[in-house]
Amino acid sequence: MDAPVIVVVGALGAQGGSVVSAYLASERSKHFRIRALTSSPSSDAALKLAANPRVTVVGVDLDSPESISAAFQDASLIFANTIFNPEAFLKEGAAAAQELEASHGLNIAQAASKIPSLKHLIWSTLPDSLRVTDGKYVIPHFQSKIPAERYLSDPKNGMESKTTYLHVGLYGSNLERVPYLPIYMPGAQKYVITLPCSPDAIIPFVGDETLNVGLIAEAIFNQPEKTVGQSVLGVSEHISCTEWALALSKALEGKKTPTTETVFIETTLESYKALWGQVLGTEIGIMFAYFNHLQERSFGSSTVLTPADLGIQASLRSTEQRLQDMDWETLLA
Question: Going from the N-terminus, what domains does the chain have, and what CATH number goes with each?
């Protein structure tokens, strides 16, 4: 009998790469063949991955239902994640990026529904901010995930008994990139993280995204009796903005940086837009205003399964541990 196939959409990205790594490292899942889908099959990263005998790298065009269907053939498991395309976002705006990602998600969902061999699909999604806040906070890169989720949960499409919805929190590495990258204030001799939310706002973090997403996904696939048809919280911890800044301070200890002290400073949404521009400032600013509004409830209710429910909480690496791994001397140079 042929070995079962797990298909990973976006296998070179943070989430997909974590799932591939988890399946390569897992003794329990060593019988799976891994089909790694990417839009860049000739890249150095893809060629390196393809050197592993358990991995087949396949190029896929998410604009093409036919390309996706071919890549999904004979799959037993599918992990699917899409991205809020940064080029479309910065050049054409949030609405264009939302429309593009939503179309990719629907193409994936519709193609998966036509694969007879499929037993279980994980859709990496985000909360429906429009519904949850009655329209007060509408976050385009959250909403772009929702059309596929609606399709998958609709009984007439045959996927509700095969799908789990994974809500992945902020990456532990987010501080390495704009607009999160701390700003050094020479006069105060401090690094500053500034966002439009309270210092006590509670933020859902997946922690070390390079490890945790894969561990959570494997646990979901290994416990279908518990996870099919359910939402799972892809979060290692909820921490405040003040605690986030403190975690970076600890990560900077012993590093050749002007200081280790990092503080969080609250700003207004309008000031944040003025700092980062209407497009980027609005997208990120509204997300943190949403977190500030809902606090611990921002990523789901008490009915959502957690890593603890799946028995893997102790195996996850925290946001602080992820920050400790990073090359801050280079990032903050």
Answer: 1-168 (3.40.50.720), 170-205+236-299+311-332 (3.90.25.10)
